């Protein structure tokens, strides 16, 4: 196959462009052939996670956003997990965190507990909140002072 000459192709692309590395594109095509729903869900998660490593969102909210049943989302998540596309980690009592692009890194604390710290996008559905009837009408939260690295503890 001949190489395509892009001539003066730009090195920076507008915000609304997406670029794929060839190996990733082939893997994406293979995923789409294996499970169109899993490929749709992966694209949905990637589009919403911003620059973070993970996303926290209920399966019910994913299903509602995609217009499918929760069982369909569960099967698609299984395909993605089993295919090495994402890692599922749990927050006790709070549900799942879906980690994309790299596995969660674990460190050993002095008390011998292993912990993982990373950023994640959180997407909540109003109807899943116990106070959903009052959303937007609550009193403002108190402001917590910011801690700046290098500031001495008081």
Shape: globular
Number of domains: 1
Class by SSE composition? alpha+beta
Regarding quaternary structure, what we see is single chain
> Can you give the helix content as a percent range?
25-40%
Number of helical elements: 4
Write the CATH homologous superfamily. Answer: Winged helix-like DNA-binding domain superfamily/Winged helix DNA-binding domain
Question: Within the CATH hierarchy, at the fold level, what is the topology?
Answer: Arc Repressor Mutant, subunit A
Straight-line N-to-C gap:
67 Å
Number of strands: 6
Q: Please tell me the overall pLDDT.
A: 83
The largest pleated sheet is described as: 4 strands, mixed
What's the helix-strand series? HHEHHEEEEE
Write the layout of secondary structure elements.
Layout: H1 22-34, H2 36-48, E1 54-56, H3 59-66, H4 70-82, E2 86-91, E3 95-100, E4 107-108, E5 114-115, E6 120-122
Parallel strand pairs: 1-6
Antiparallel strand pairs: 1-3, 2-3, 4-5
Helix pairs in contact: 1-2, 2-4, 3-4
């Amino acid at each position: 196959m001949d190489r395509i000459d892009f001539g003066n192709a730009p090195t920076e692309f507008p915000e609304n462009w997406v670029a794929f590395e060839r190996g990733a594109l082939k893997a994406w095509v293979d995923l789409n052939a294996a499970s169109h729903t899993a490929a749709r869900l992966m694209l949905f998660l990637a589009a919403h996670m911003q620059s973070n490593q993970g996303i926290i969102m209920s399966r019910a909210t994913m299903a509602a956003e995609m217009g499918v049943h929760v069982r369909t989302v569960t099967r698609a998540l299984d395909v993605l997990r089993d295919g090495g596309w994402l890692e599922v980690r749990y927050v006790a009592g709070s549900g799942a965190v879906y980690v994309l692009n790299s596995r969660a890194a674990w460190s050993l604390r002095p008390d011998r507990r292993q912990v993982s710290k990373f950023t994640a996008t959180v997407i909540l559905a109003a109807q899943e909140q116990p106070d959903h009837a009052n959303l937007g009408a609550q009193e403002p939260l108190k402001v917590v002072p910011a801690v700046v690295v290098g500031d001495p503890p008081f």
